[in-house]
Specification:
Distance between the termini: 46 Å
Largest sheet: 6 strands, mixed
Radius of gyration: 25 Å
Structural class: alpha+beta
Number of helices: 8
CATH superfamily of the largest domain: ATPase, nucleotide binding domain
Helix content: 10-25%
CATH architecture of the largest domain: 2-Layer Sandwich
Number of strands: 25
Strand content: 35-45%
Number of domains: 3
């Protein structure tokens, strides 16, 4: 059995990769499938009434034995039916089967974060369901895209590496894409929080790279090197970059020596293909260890508003968020229990990063029985109906054996600004 129970899981159309928290090192380590190889091919096979995955399924494909499902990630997103093993299966079930098989050496997984090329409500729901299928409670399953994974990875690197902007270059057989991690300009007075984002700043088709696979073609490589060097110079123009990360199969051959000189000029450069799974593992670690320090990641899909109630948490009274900025609206539902000090009303604050204004709402608690301070316990349910509409429900749940619950229930509908337009104003 693997030692780690806190996992990061990189999942894309071609393969997956697993990083886990190593308690001895107190940092993520990546599961090796062979010497210096961390990728598990995204293939699921069925042979002699047995499910196989990864390299074993790839062997079946090569020798044309058994049945092998390819393009599994996209098929699952399309909710296709796939016939294998004499039965029709949902592609989502097959993907869940694949994930479960890859996780069979990990017992009692306490937290898992999936890193995927992109995420939305459908991807999130599917992967949370797959995590549940693998035996992990849904509340312990997180989903983030590659840009956020890059961001989470950087949070745990020495600060001098992201003191200014940090660059990520991804290269495969078709194209090169460049991303920048940078700080956002938010209004003052938001406490100690720092907000960051990752922008895709450039991309280029690199047909010349086709000649490099799998054997290096020197002449073509020189042309590709010059083009990449020019590409880098355009990306870095008028920017102060602390560090550079290269990832993707396109960087496996050393075809870019001149470009590398530009990359390393006054900054640190790193090459590796386990950045996303480690970034996902860091997210899981933050959840398990309740580590709240560090920048808040935002993009055009994240909420730039937060909903706060005045509460006493760990002996500290103040305005505490029940919905935090930096979350997806479709993952912001939750349930809280609070003990009230008085029974008049509850004040709600909605703070926004896009402006100075503070939205104040109140909920009347008329109808609640009068009880001594600290003996009135309220359950607060948070449910988002859509990206702009949040419903708060307040219920009396009693106080142990002393005060039974009543049928008191109050609702408050909050109209928020939504995600569109607000993020751009901070950039």
């Amino acid at each position: 059995m693997q030692r780690g129970s806190i996992l990061g899981y990189d999942l894309n159309e071609k393969s997956c990769q697993i990083s886990y928290y190593d308690e001895r090192k107190e940092e993520p380590d990546t599961l090796e499938t062979a010497v210096d190889n961390y990728q598990i091919p995204l293939l699921l096979g069925y042979y002699k009434e047995r499910w196989v995955f990864g390299k074993e399924a790839k062997k079946l494909l090569v020798i044309r034995e058994g049945e092998v499902v390819t393009d599994l990630f996209q098929r699952a997103l399309r909710r296709e039916k796939v016939r294998i093993g004499g039965k029709n299966h949902d592609a989502v079930w097959l993907l869940a089967k694949f994930v479960s098989l890859t996780l069979q050496d990990f017992e009692e997984i306490s937290q898992i974060t999936f890193a995927v090329p992109y995420t939305d409500i459908d991807v999130s729901k599917m992967l949370k369901g797959i995590g549940s299928f693998a035996g992990v409670p849904k509340e312990c399953v997180n989903v983030q895209d590659y840009k956020e994974s890059f961001c989470q990875y950087m949070f745990y690197q020495p600060k001098e590496l992201w003191q200014y902007e940090s660059a990520l270059f991804y290269c495969d057989a078709q194209e090169i894409r460049a991303y920048m991690l940078r700080k956002l300009n938010t209004i003052t007075g938001r406490g100690k929080d720092m907000f960051v984002t990752v922008d895709e700043v450039a991309s280029a088709k690199m047909k010349e790279l086709e000649a490099i696979y799998p054997v290096l073609n020197v002449d073509k490589a020189k042309d590709a090197d010059e083009q990449f060097k020019s590409f880098i110079q355009n990306v870095f123009e008028k920017k102060v970059v602390s560090s550079v990360y290269l990832t993707g199969e396109g960087f496996e051959n050393n075809w870019y020596p001149n470009s590398l000189k530009v990359l390393c000029n006054g900054r640190r450069a790193f090459l590796g293909n386990n950045l996303y799974s480690k970034g996902a593992c860091y997210t899981s670690m933050r959840k398990v260890f309740s580590y709240d320090e560090g920048p808040v990641y935002l993009d055009e899909t994240k909420m730039t508003e937060q909903i706060c109630l005045r509460m006493r948490v760990n002996g500290q009274e103040g305005w505490h968020p029940i919905v935090s900025w930096g979350t997806h609206w479709y993952e912001a539902d939750g349930q809280w229990e609070v003990i009230l000090e008085d029974t008049s009303d509850i004040e709600i604050h909605v703070e926004t990063l896009a402006g100075e204004e503070l939205q104040v709402e109140t909920v009347s608690l008329k109808g609640l029985p009068e009880r001594r301070d600290y003996s009135l316990r309220i359950q607060i349910d948070v449910m988002f109906l859509d990206e702009r509409t949040c419903r708060l429900t307040f219920k009396d749940v009693g106080f142990g054996e002393f005060f039974p619950a009543t049928d008191f229930c109050a609702e408050k509908i909050l109209k928020l600004g939504g995600i569109h337009g607000q993020f751009n104003s901070m950039s």
